[in-house]
Recover the amino acids of this structure.
């Protein structure tokens, strides 16, 4: 450590950041008692650290933007982008992490799927499994829609419809019966001209009706709500505004 008449900025910075061992800190305390100018510099460093914490600590509570996570972490997204773009995205994420620890903390703050209602967990899980299926994405195809709806209505114990999404470019692929904690659940799958798929999940629920709620992570987004006698979840790998538009059409289609 510098023990000359004036201390270096590095010495005082290490003191403020708690990087000095106990003996060195005690020696510096003794020397600063007789050097008011350096003591004033030390206090200024303390104030600066406090101001920086007040400015950047709130960022620790913010999740990393989904678009940024997708650039770095999503295999399909990485493989379709030039290598320079992948490197740039990684650098941005690394720099972000250096500011207040945003990177790693943001990853931890992404709402865990386990915090969702159980039926939403199962809806999202079923979407990820079946929306990626090429040969057998559904159990009953759209050409048997009448049979599908009648069968699922009987199993769920209440009449249910397969909402028509043709007006927004999505065609019914078909549907299937699923299990949800020992009870039956239904899944309807839709696909647009670009091959993007969304699924509507329904299970019996006599709870109080709720407005749309939203969930997203790097793989899937979902709007979910209760409209007794069913709980519903609409899942898809789509931007929130687009998925919300579909959710409104689904809601209206189910209410007819």
């Amino acid at each position: 450590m510098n023990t000359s008449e004036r201390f270096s900025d590095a010495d005082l910075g290490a003191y403020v950041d708690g990087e000095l061992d106990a003996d060195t800190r005690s020696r510096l305390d003794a020397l600063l008692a007789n050097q008011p100018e350096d003591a004033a510099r030390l206090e200024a460093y303390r104030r600066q650290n406090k101001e920086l914490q007040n400015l950047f600590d709130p960022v620790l509570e913010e999740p990393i933007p989904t678009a940024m996570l997708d650039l770095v972490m999503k295999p399909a997204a990485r493989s379709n982008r030039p290598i320079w773009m992948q490197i740039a995205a990684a650098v941005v994420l690394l720099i972000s992490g250096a500011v207040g620890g945003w990177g790693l903390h943001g990853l931890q703050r992404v709402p865990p799927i386990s915090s969702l209602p159980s039926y939403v967990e199962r809806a999202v899980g079923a979407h990820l499994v079946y929306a990626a299926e090429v040969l057998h994405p559904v159990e009953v195809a759209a050409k048997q829609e009448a049979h599908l709806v009648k069968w699922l209505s009987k199993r769920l114990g209440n009449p249910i419809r397969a909402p028509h999404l043709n007006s927004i470019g999505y065609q019914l692929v078909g549907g299937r019966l699923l299990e949800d904690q020992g009870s039956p659940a239904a899944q309807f799958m839709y696909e647009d001209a670009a091959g993007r798929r969304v699924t509507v999940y329904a299970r019996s629920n006599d709870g109080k009706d709720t407005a749309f709620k939203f969930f997203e992570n790097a793989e899937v987004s979902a709007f979910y709500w209760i409209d007794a006698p069913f709980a519903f979840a609409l899942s898809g790998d789509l931007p929130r505004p687009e998925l919300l538009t579909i959710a409104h059409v689904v809601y209206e289609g189910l209410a007819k």
